[in-house]
Design goal:
One of its GO terms (cellular component) is extracellular region. By secondary structure, the chain is mainly α. About 70% of the residues lie in helices and about 0% in strands. It has one domain.
Length: about 110
Amino acid sequence: MKLTLALLLMSCALGAQAASFDCAKASAADEKAICASRELNDKDVTMATQYRLLKGLFAMGGQGAMQGQQQAWLKSRQACGGDVACLNQRYDQRLKQLDATWQRIDKPL
């Protein structure tokens, strides 16, 4: 099962959620656009949950690498500003990257 699907099912069981950051404190254009869009909000929650889960599966060196990738991705997201199409593209790319990372992990049967 794809990690995204598993996380989506898990988030549905937890009920409605907001973005991975406090929308009341959103000041950047990308954050405001995410808070204004249910689709982007949902992608943000899925991405943040998937990232935290995967990061926790790695030793410190792997966690550092994942954190570096996440920070680079956040910069690319911020470069979109309030452009919703650009933000959707950035989230779709990041979710594919995280899914690929999940697929490369050796998992017990």
